[in-house]
Amino acid sequence: MLELQPMIHKFKMKDKFFLLDVNSGIIHVIDELIDRVLDIYNGTNRDAVHSVLDATEDAAELDEIMDELDELIKEEMLFAPMSAEFKLVVDEKPIVKALCLNIAHDCNLACKYCFASQGDYGGVKRELMSFDVAKRAVDFLISMSGPRQHCEIDFFGGEPLLNWDVVKQTVEYIESIQEKHGKIFKLTLTTNGMLLTQDKIDYVNEHNMSLVLSLDGREDVHNSMRPSSGGKDTYNTVAKNLVNAVKQREGREYYVRGTYTHNNLDFCKDVEAMSDLGFEHLSMEPVVGEDGAYVLRPEDMPIIEKEYEKLDRLIFRTSTSRLGEKFNFFHFRMDLYRGPCMAKRLRGCGAGHEYMAVVPNGDIYPCHQYVGKDGYVIGTVFDGLKNYDIPTQFRNTHVFTKETCANCWAKFFCSGGCHANNETLGGDLSTPYEMGCKLQKKRIECAIMIQAELDAAGIRQENH
Questions:
Q1: What is the pLDDT of residues 389-409, one digit of tens each?
Q2: Are 157 and 104 within 8 A, CB to CB?
Q3: Three-class DSSP category at 384
Q4: pTM value?
Q5: Residue 220 · residue 186 · CB < 8 Å
Q6: Which residues contact 10 (CB under 8 A, 6 or more apart)?
Q7: If both were cysteines, with which of 101, 230, 231, 426 could 422 make a disulfide (CB 3.0 to 4.6 Å apart)?
């Protein structure tokens, strides 16, 4: 059953009070008295507000506040009902929209936190994808995407640049057939940057490919977590190549992605270090793992929360008359005007039914995080999907089937979290990873505050 109750979330940050109407996604900046009124008021209980607050506040002012709140309720900007679109999205027929091509099950780095075990995914054979498998994967996506025009492919690994010739062959195959099939492909290359030479930069720019570039911030932090497969430092090579690539993007999409761990809880310094290299589009992700000295711990949360607030302050640079930015942070970018589509708000990335991963031997997994896990091969690019139980289960698992999520104010921003993380660290598909929830909520509050301030300053951002 869908949980359809109206819901709000209030919080204070930087001496300002913010209100999120959960179902509509509308953000209100309020004052302290309105915040106190909304501790009590639900649109029907004026007497309760007066009985609690009349001793300290003016009754006429309280009535005026509740009149304004009633107007917002009438306009469905406060305590908004759930849109009927959610039920329609739950019931609609699924189509595959995106593939992750694990073009290389091998890597030239030995990152300590790598979920892919430096490319072999915990025992899967180290090998490179052939063009035949890649071509069949493209054909599979076209056939499974139905009438959808826009499709996506991410060249992933391991390190995809170890199989550069097949990347190029696949790109050129896509470009040769997409118009015939009425498709427009968005292509992304995720790389550690070690092999990102000028010829490759020229190629990805010429073919308008997006880039996801990995760097962990400060030199010592990066080198400690991302050594080469031979154990050598990699920062200087990676930083040089990434700076060279980003200088030539000329508006094309990219972001530089780092990972913070228990060993660098002061990750604002890493974000600032990446900004100082000239990178404007940044992300710093929390490490996910069960073992190791680098794994985040519950006692780290107060430090992390303060660090996110510090990061918020880093984003804003005051000039003479307006609010400016030196960089933008991936997780703090929210569109308060449109927001994510209904399907994404319900299920996030769509792993297992809208998004899938293909490995070098042609096997299809629900996503790259499931590669190598027993029981999760759902088909092959040679024979198509065979195991429909997992896609069906993943599709039917959304924020309203998870008790924790259904009653959570953040559900439409985190969409219930990562399926793989929930299973590995939460215990099962429907139990969110608790640490991940806490981190996500803090990031969302920071994002709301930042976007509300930008909106108040008349600054609209382009989302990357």
A1: 888 888 888 888 888 888 899
A2: yes
A3: strand
A4: 0.88
A5: no
A6: 17, 18, 19, 20, 30, 35, 38, 39
A7: 426
